């Protein structure tokens, strides 16, 4: 079983729609969680960290469910510029490695 | 943007030849990582470094070696390139201000390596 798993999508949504997707992780010792965004043929960039209480950054909302070992990302009022691959990233408490999911592709259409 | 550069950005090489990719940072971050990205697999960790001359293996380290003789440079060497090592390679840096806390990783622009 992969350490971090994501639905690859693609999620194809119209502008203005809400889209949400999850990521599951297998190691219960995981401590830190992130969502990264990757545009085609570009490097990943941090979108937001995910905190235990859930957090929001503009149109983006991230949630963490430790009991079920998943994190989620919700995008409201989708823009064309939101089209990208979203990578779920998990860090364990006792080492320096970041584990990546394979990514969820979102395409926002006009 | 974080000061992290990879070189070369593109390379085509022949099977069996050694190849070295360079990652250079100007952020003085302690931790450096090499990942490869392939369709369907996402980013997989090859090797990482937690200080000068301190390195460790990731999940796909076979066929690769690394060196870090200075804080700013992390070299990835393919000892004898194979076609299965055709991939996009990303270097990343991070700094843990306190153990276990969330910390952002910054990525280089990637190196596209083709082994023919």
Query: Major sheet of chain B: size, sense and barrel closure?
Result: 7 strands, mixed
Q: Report the strand count of chain B.
A: 11
The residue fraction in helices of chain B comes out at: under 10%
The residue-averaged pLDDT of chain A reads 91
- Most extensive interface between two protein chains, with residue counts: A-B, 26 and 26 residues
Task: Specify the number of helices of chain A.
Answer: 0
Total beta-strand segments of chain A: 11
Q: Radius of gyration of chain A from the CA trace?
A: 13 Å
- Give the structural class of chain B: mainly beta
**What is the distance, rounded to the nearest whole angstrom, between the alpha carbons of the first and last residues of chain B?**
34 Å
N-to-C series of helices and strands of chain B: EEEEEEEEEEE
Instruction: Assign an overall shape of chain A.
Output: globular
- Please identify the oligomeric state: heterodimer
Mean pLDDT of chain B: 91
Query: Strand fraction band of chain A?
Result: over 45%
Low-confidence stretches of chain A are none
| H/E series of chain A | EEEEEEEEEEE
Short description, anyone?
Chain A has 110 residues and is mainly beta.
Properties at a glance:
heterodimer; A: 110 residues; mainly beta; six-stranded mixed beta sheet; five-stranded antiparallel beta sheet; 11 strands; 0% helix; B: 116 residues; seven-stranded mixed beta sheet; four-stranded antiparallel beta sheet; globular
Describe this structure in words.
The complex is a heterodimer of chains A (110) and B (116). Chain A is an all-beta fold and 110 residues long. Helices cover 0% and strands 56% of the residues of chain A. Chain A is built from no helices and 11 strands. Chain A has strands spanning 4-6, 11-14, 19-25, 30-38, 45-50, 55-57, 60-65, 70-75, 84-92, 98-100, 104-109. In chain A, the strands form 2 sheets. In chain A, strands 2, 4, 5, 9, 10 and 11 form a 6-stranded mixed beta sheet that branches. Chain A has a 5-stranded antiparallel beta sheet with strand order 1-3-8-7-6, with no helix packed on it. In chain A, strand 9 and strand 10 (98-100) form a beta hairpin. Chain B is globular, with a radius of gyration of 14 Å. The model of chain B has no long low-confidence stretch (mean pLDDT 91). Chain B has strands at 4-7, 10-13, 19-25, 31-38, 42-51, 54-57, 64-70, 73-78, 87-94, 105-107, 111-115. Chain B is mostly beta strands and 116 residues long. In chain B, 36% of the residues are buried. In chain B, strand 5 (42-51) and strand 6 (54-57) form a beta hairpin. In chain B, strands 2, 4, 5, 6, 9, 10 and 11 form a 7-stranded mixed beta sheet that branches. The chains are: A mainly beta (110), B mainly beta (116).
């Amino acid at each position: 079983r992969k350490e971090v798993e994501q639905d690859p999508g693609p999620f194809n949504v119209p502008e203005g729609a809400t889209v949400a997707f999850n990521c599951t992780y297998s190691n219960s010792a995981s401590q830190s969680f992130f969502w990264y965004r990757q545009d085609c043929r570009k490097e990943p960039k941090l979108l937001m960290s995910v905190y235990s209480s859930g957090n929001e950054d503009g149109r983006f909302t991230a949630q963490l469910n430790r009991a079920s070992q998943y994190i989620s990302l919700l995008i409201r009022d989708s823009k064309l510029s939101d089209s990208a691959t979203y990578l779920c990233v998990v860090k364990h408490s006792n080492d320096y490695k970041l584990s990546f999911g394979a990514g969820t592709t979102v395409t926002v259409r006009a | 943007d974080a000061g992290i550069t990879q070189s070369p950005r593109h390379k085509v090489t022949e099977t069996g030849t050694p190849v070295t990719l360079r990652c250079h940072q100007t952020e003085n971050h302690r931790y450096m990582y090499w990942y490869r990205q392939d369709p369907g697999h996402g980013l997989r960790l090859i090797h990482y470094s937690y200080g000068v001359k301190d390195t460790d293996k990731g999940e796909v380290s076979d066929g690769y070696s690394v060196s870090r003789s200075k804080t700013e440079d992390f070299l990835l060497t393919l000892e004898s390139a194979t076609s299965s090592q055709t991939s996009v390679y990303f270097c990343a840096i991070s700094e843990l201000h306190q153990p276990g806390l969330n910390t952002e990783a910054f990525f280089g622009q990637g190196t596209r390596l083709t082994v023919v």
